[in-house]
Specification:
Oligomer: single chain
Largest sheet: 2 strands, antiparallel
CATH architecture of the largest domain: Up-down Bundle
InterPro entries: GntR_C (IPR011711), TF_FadR/GntR_C (IPR008920), Tscrpt_reg_HTH_GntR (IPR000524), WH-like_DNA-bd_sf (IPR036388), WH_DNA-bd_sf (IPR036390)
CATH class of the largest domain: Mainly Alpha
Protein name: GntR family transcriptional regulator
Pfam family, one: FCD
Radius of gyration: 19 Å
Number of domains: 2
Number of strands: 2
Keywords: DNA-binding, Transcription, Transcription regulation
GO molecular function, one term: DNA binding
């Protein structure tokens, strides 16, 4: 089952938000593949709703960057290029570092509480690796990073990161390079971030996030030649 057939009836909740959530999930799991056209009338028929909320849902996903609207042709699932992937991961690093900098300034007890919460998530990741539940692992991975950003207590960082997280899930699900990565590194990599965050050493946190989110051969960062890490802001 793929595409429109993978959508389920909305029963008595025909809202644009619910429709966009369903479509987003079907894009993430590959039911709708890159380049596929999403036909407004077919979606409305499958979900047993009028075309108005479907049109609004498609517009939401175009704004999120998951779909692209082509004049006189329709709406299509955006094809993610290698350059897109590199940009997504660089943007993730910028946002996560901004949130982490806020967290590192919290008192020791609060940082410990956050670190303990994130550590518990790595236990779930380890269980997913052992069970070879790769889709679950991808979602736990993104939940870890989303939780880190949420602890920065900046609603706009959270909102920006939510869209990036969806794009990152699509990258991990659809690009073979991610599925073939050495999964034995997943838990240790996240634990390293946790322990650096617990220490309150922002430079160490930044380095850990940079190493974790960098992609081989797609280095877009403009860090200084001496190896110092910053994102375009002047530092003393």
């Amino acid at each position: 089952m793929s595409g429109v057939q993978a959508l389920s009836a909305l029963e008595h909740r025909p809202t644009a938000v619910i429709i966009s959530d369903q479509l987003r999930e079907r894009i993430i799991d590959g039911a709708f593949k890159p380049g596929d056209q999403i036909n407004e009338a077919q979606v409305a028929s499958q979900l047993r709703v009028s075309r108005g909320p479907v049109r609004e849902a498609l517009h939401r996903l175009v704004q999120e960057g998951l779909l692209i609207g082509l004049p006189n042709r329709g709406v299509f699932v955006r094809e993610i290029t290698e350059r897109d992937i590199a940009e997504i991961y660089e943007a993730r690093e910028v946002i996560e570092c901004a949130a982490a900098e806020i967290v590192t300034k919290l008192d020791d007890a609060e940082r410990d509480r956050i670190a303990d919460e994130l550590t518990a998530m790595t236990t779930e990741m380890g269980e997913a690796v052992a069970a070879e539940q790769w889709d679950l692992l991808r979602r736990l991975d993104l939940r870890f990073h989303m939780t880190l950003v949420e602890h920065g207590r900046n609603r706009r960082l959270v909102r920006a990161y939510s869209t990036l997280a969806t794009e990152a899930l699509i990258c991990m699900a659809q690009w073979s390079g991610f599925s073939e990565n050495n999964r034995s590194r997943v838990v240790p990599g996240h634990l390293d971030i946790v322990e650096k965050l617990r220490s309150g050493d922002m430079e160490a946190v930044h380095l850990a996030l940079h190493n974790h989110l960098s992609l081989d051969d797609y280095q877009l960062h403009t860090h200084d030649d001496d190896g110092s890490l910053r994102h375009g802001r002047p530092e003393e």
